[in-house]
């Protein structure tokens, strides 16, 4: 499984780019999953429907299944930042690619997606300080400051981004983090 994080600030074009890269990867015979980090309270359930009613009644988890899809909703007991590695562990291990949107502070290898105008986010880019950034995705009109030796991929050419990912797939091979248990008995 290859995992790549599409990182960047709000309105940089991450969702649009991922939406365009997915069918290109699929056309190359790749199976793709996506993890989306949502910063705000959100709901994918419809008020009044059975699954919504079960959650409203206090169910910790609601799994809805049909002959076409399965959705698992879990209510978190307290506000907590989701752990991207725990989320990846919940996915089908047989996928070829996991495209992660957001989680810009995680340790996964990243493509940094930059907005058209440097002042759009009002924040400094990640690539100068984040060693996990493997390439920068930007529009042809955008100039990178500070300069970098990192590959620069065209934001308006999702096919080129997908081909670059496939050509450099070894960089994105996912190894779950090791968790060591300490034996208190000795």
Structural notes for this entry:
The chain is of the alpha/beta class and 186 residues long. It has two domains: 142 residues, Rossmann fold; 42 residues, no CATH class. The strands form two sheets. Strands 2-5-1-6-7-8 form a six-stranded parallel sheet. A two-stranded antiparallel ribbon has the order 3-4. The mean pLDDT is 89.
Name its key features.
186 residues; alpha/beta; Rossmann fold
Widest sheet: strand ordering: 2-5-1-6-7-8
Largest sheet, in brief, is: 6 strands, parallel
Could you say which overall geometry the principal axes of the C-alpha atoms support? globular
Detail the poorly predicted runs.
none
Number of strands: 8
Count the DSSP helices.
Answer: 4
What percent of residues adopt helix (DSSP H or I)?
Answer: 10-25%
When the domains are counted, the total is 2
- Could you state the order of secondary-structure elements as H and E? EHEHEEHEEEEH
What is the top-level CATH class of the largest domain? Alpha Beta
CATH superfamily of the largest domain: P-loop containing nucleotide triphosphate hydrolases
CATH topology term of the largest domain: Rossmann fold
Quickly give the structural class.
alpha/beta
Percent of sequence in beta strands? 15-25%
CATH architectural designation of the largest domain: 3-Layer(aba) Sandwich
Global Rg = 19 Å
Oligomer: single chain
């Amino acid at each position: 499984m290859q995992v790549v994080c599409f990182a960047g600030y709000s309105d940089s074009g991450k969702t649009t780019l991922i939406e365009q890269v997915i069918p290109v990867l699929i056309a190359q015979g790749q199976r793709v999953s996506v993890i989306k980090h949502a910063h705000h309270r959100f709901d994918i359930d419809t008020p009044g429907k059975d699954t919504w009613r079960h959650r409203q009644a206090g169910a910790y988890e609601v799994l809805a299944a049909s002959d076409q899809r399965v959705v698992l909703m879990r209510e978190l007991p307290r506000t907590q930042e989701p752990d991207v590695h725990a989320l990846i562990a919940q996915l089908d291990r047989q996928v070829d690619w996991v495209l992660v949107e957001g989680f810009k502070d995680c340790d996964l290898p990243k493509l940094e997606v930059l907005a058209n105008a440097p002042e759009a986010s009002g924040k400094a880019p990640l690539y100068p300080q984040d060693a996990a950034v493997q390439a920068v995705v930007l529009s042809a009109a955008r100039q990178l400051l500070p300069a970098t030796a990192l590959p620069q991929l065209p934001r308006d050419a999702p096919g080129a981004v997908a081909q670059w990912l496939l050509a450099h797939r070894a960089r994105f091979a996912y190894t779950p983090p090791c968790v060591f248990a300490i034996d208190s008995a000795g």
